[in-house]
Write a structure and sequence with these properties.
The chain is α+β, with helices and mostly antiparallel strands and about 325 residues long. It is built from nine helices and ten strands. The chain has two domains: about 180 residues, no CATH class; about 90 residues, PDZ domain (Pdz3 Domain).
């Protein structure tokens, strides 16, 4: 039951993403031939006025097939005959919808159960923060070169510092102060800590909840950027990467923990989908975005057939990576 709930939740994220493409295509006068959720053989299908709505066998991804998006067409309603700006608006709408959904879900969660703020509520006696003079009520705004907007920002910086000294900047009585704190290893939690607890905003206003939704989404984007830097530097391990099976497993665990936990995980995945799709790689939205920006800036139209070949190769590479990551999920599963 929990796995089914997890798959349904992931399906909603895909629907929202594809709905962004679909809506902007319609607004820009492009004929949509198929709106599909999932991949592989068709399970269910309904034929609309001009669009085929389908549910596919494999609950992975989805797509909006537009007339002229895989080659040239003389039809004025074809995607390839639209201006670069119109094509760009259609392609970028999917990732934007995922980011908006993340903001909305985080805001709803905050309004229902509150959220943690990077304002110190309690300092553990004789721990590094206490020794260096940090007190209850201090608002942490920066650690080293990283701006702190959420408690998660602070935890991430402390965790990734791996015990190295931290320059913590905080505000007390409208004055900004900075102190150097050296984290210590907590034996029970097996991670580095500085000895402070955050303030819980238990009953946020609507404005605070919406603001938290924006701030948390921004924080996730920043953390994901840091993760990609770790990958490019070759410092990420095999246990840091998961595929579809990992997502389903974690989603199922989140569903078992309650609806709010599932919503939180869905918000996290939605933001990740938005970020992943704007990576400038062929077959991803980001690859199209780069191409249409090139057309918009230079005024030169790219060859649709060549673009189709490039995207076909890119899709094949992505599917290969998907298979490899799935095999990794089976052989080296990430533990919950």
């Amino acid at each position: 039951m929990y796995i089914i709930m997890a798959i349904l939740a992931f399906g909603v994220l895909v629907i929202i993403h594809e709905l962004g493409h679909f809506t902007m295509a319609k607004l820009n006068g492009v004929k949509v031939e198929e709106f599909a959720i999932g991949m592989g053989p068709k399970l269910l299908g309904i034929k609309g006025k001009e669009t085929q709505y389908s549910i596919k066998l494999l609950p992975i991804g989805g797509y909006v097939k537009m007339l002229g998006d895989e080659g040239e067409s003389s039809d004025p309603r074809a995607f390839n005959n639209k201006s670069p700006l119109r094509k760009l608006s259609i392609v970028i709408a999917g990732p934007i919808m995922n980011l908006i959904l993340g903001i909305v879900l985080f805001a709803i969660i905050a309004s229902m159960r509150g959220y943690l703020s990077p304002v110190v509520e309690k300092v553990v006696p004789n721990q590094p923060a206490d020794v260096m003079g940090i007190k209850a009520g201090d608002k942490i705004v920066r650690v080293n070169n990283s701006k702190i907007s959420t408690w998660e920002d602070f935890v991430t910086v402390v965790y990734t510092a791996n015990g190295n000294p931290l320059d913590i900047t905080y505000i007390r009585n409208n004055q900004t102060n900075t102190t150097k704190v050296v984290p210590v290893k907590d034996a029970e939690q097996n991670r580095y800590v500085v000895g402070i607890y955050p303030t819980t905003v238990e009953k946020p206003t609507a404005s605070q909840s919406i603001t938290y939704g924006f701030v948390e989404t921004k924080s996730l984007i920043k953390q994901t950027g840091s993760f990609f830097k770790t990958i490019f530097k070759g410092k990420a391990s095999v246990n840091d990467v998961g595929g579809p099976l990992t997502i389903i497993k974690f989603s199922g665990a989140a569903a078992k923990a309650g609806i709010l936990s599932l919503m939180a995980f869905a918000a996290y995945i939605s933001v990740q989908l938005g970020i992943f799709n704007i990576i400038p790689f062929p077959a991803l939205d980001g690859g199209y975005i780069i191409m249409f920006l090139f057309e918009l800036i230079t005024g030169k139209k790219l060859d649709d057939n060549k673009v189709g070949i490039i995207n076909y190769v890119g899709f094949a590479i992505l599917m290969t990576l998907m298979v490899l990551v799935t095999i990794k999920d089976i052989l080296y599963p990430i533990k919950i």
